[in-house]
Amino acid sequence: MDTEHLLDEITAHQQVERVLDGYFAAAKERAERISPSYLSLWEALEKSTAGGKRLRPRIVMTAYTHLGGRDIAAAARVGAAFELLHTALIVHDDVIDLDFVRRGQDNVPGVYRRRAEASGEAPETARHRGLSVGIIAGDLALSGAFRMLDSVTTDPFTRDTLAGILDDAVFASAAGELIDVDFSFEPGAPPVGDILDMERLKTAVYSFEAPLRAGAVLAGAGPEAVAALGRFGRDTGIAYQVVDDLLGVFGNESATGKSSMGDLREGKRTVLIAYAAQSPFWAELSGIIGRPDMDTADADRARKILVDCGARDYAQNLAADYAASARSHLDCAELPAGLAAMLDAVVSSSVNRGR
């Protein structure tokens, strides 16, 4: 990367942080005028956004700066909008999955469950309180994402296009989440292709496709460049999620920040499980996963089955195939060489996590 773009990215990251700090400062000031408990909720929501990699703002900024964009302040607000969307979706996802921990710490539902327990509430009541507040917090972050995007200084046509991209991302993610929930009620495992479709809708669109397209649109890029970046984002996002599925079972907990038993205990329908379901090993594996009382020995046995039936190798190869497909979309005359090089690095970091 040349020095100019390196400085651009450093400045962009700092600007996104300033935008988010300003957003939460203003929200907390408003909340304090209503009640201390509402201020406390905003403080918990703000804390839940800290410590993340800011992947989506970085993607927005990478596309924007390498396509000639120079209004870093405007781009930072677009990036912040996608970070708020990410916050909303993970808070709601934790509610759906009944998770109370994220990145090794209490998430928003976890904070409020613990507070309720500390005040003497029964475990089930405390759990309900935590999940209820999680829904409220996610709603606030989602509303904030659209308000943030509406504050971007640009022409009306570009603002409308950006709003459409963000709306499409929310619409797709909700569909993917619904499909994922439906999968959990099915006795068997869906085909691999259905899993990949779900993962694209749930994760790839809002994490890669939409931020890349938004950065390009804000920079004034042409339709061919925007479309190529969308295709690149789609395949990168699918590769990213397949790797996430692998890390959810085989990852090092200290590195991933999540339990390596959670997906197995939940019986989460992933590419690994879909592949194993077509093998002779499924009869045994299906009796192990999806049990709340799963212990370490059960999890170790499930992992061995996933290795022996070829599911782990299959998922690793599938991620590599999607990464290669993503790179093929960078061969576009409308994409500058510097941007292609940066996005090639994004693919590599997406598929090499945990190694």
From TrEMBL:
Keywords: Magnesium, Metal-binding, Transferase. It holds the Pfam family polyprenyl_synt. Belongs to the FPP/GGPP synthase family. Its cofactor is Mg(2+). This is Polyprenyl synthetase family protein. It comes from Arthrobacter gallicola. PROSITE patterns: POLYPRENYL_SYNTHASE_1 (PS00723). SUPFAM superfamilies: Terpenoid synthases. The keyword Metal-binding applies. The keyword 4Fe-4S does not apply.
